[in-house]
Structure of Flavodoxin:
Amino acid sequence: MSRRSFLFVLGSSRPDGNTESLARAAAEQLPADVGQTWISLLQHPLPDFEDQRHDADRVRPTEGAEALLLDATLAATDIVIVSPLYWYSVSAQTKRYLDHWAGWLRTPGLGFKERLAGRTLWGVTALADDQPVVADPLVGTLHNSAAYLGMSFGGVLLGNGSKPGDVLGDTQALTRAKTFFAQEAPPARFLYDG
């Protein structure tokens, strides 16, 4: 897989929100030869995750939102979680997507963990608080998920905004967006490893 391909997973409960606007500002800086796939979890809702880790009959999904997201996830070199900060972490839709990763990890013949190893996980979020530290649980969720899968972690682009369009007034976030995807993404290590 030589050509970079970004998957943007939109986890907001409303379209065209601040988090998506910030992600699109960052994506505009990607080179023209980098593929971009945008999937809204609002438009392609996943079913509730059912833990079937001890179910020997688990099979790869072949239709619907789960199949679409699984195929897009496996095809991407870079996965960008685009989730507003809800109660200090990712949105419910985003958490459901990540929960499905647990099922894909245990789908026979899929090799989900091995296939994601070495790829890069990124995050973009908007928060309605002037203290970036309140996003630490969201950052930790993504960072530790990347570490578990042997992925690199590019960090989380933070912006400030509550009402739609507010983030476009956050000049610091828009400046960071210009170089966000150009920065080095080191291999993720569990946050408790130091």
